[in-house]
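Q: Give me the 3D complex with copper (II) ion.
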Amino acid sequence: MDRKTRQRGRMAVALGFVAFAAMSLAGCGAASAANPPARHHQAAASSPWLTFSASQRTAAVTLIAGYKGANSGFNYDGYAHGQMVVSIPAGYTVTVTLKNQGSLPHSAAVVAGSPASTTLAFAGASAPSQNTSTGLAIGQSAEFHLTPKHAGTFYIVCLVPGHEQLGMWLKLVVTSGGVPSLSD
Ligand SMILES: [Cu+2]
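A: Here is the predicted complex, encoded as structure tokens.
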């Protein structure tokens, strides 16, 4: 690699970072404009909590723990007690990002059968990846991926003891077709 190529490489990285930072800022703006623990029925592509690519069969779910203190802070994106349903078609690869904006540690794990279950329904389907009962420290983020192969009903739950009982869980429905969506 000659020096010019290297400089161009560095420039590209710098530009990429600026673009990323701008996107992050835009993302925050969009989230706060869209805000109130929103009644966003079928928000899908325009939702701050779910984006997807039908052609690549990928989806990204953002879970903000302790969002605006709803349900005494025991919520994801302002929702608790299964109020928000995340629907993902089987075969999609889903990236779930947990951001802890609450005042306590929290985690997010995908379980089956009942929200009270503490057994992961998919290998590695938790954030943080270890110590889910200790949870993610305040202000931290972590992500995990899952690719559900079959339709079914699952739950996204906080495994910090007591939190699920206080309502810190959402529903995750794996559908046999369609596109990803959110409903409440
Ligand atoms: Cu929690």
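A quick observation: Residues 3-33 form the longest helix (31 residues).
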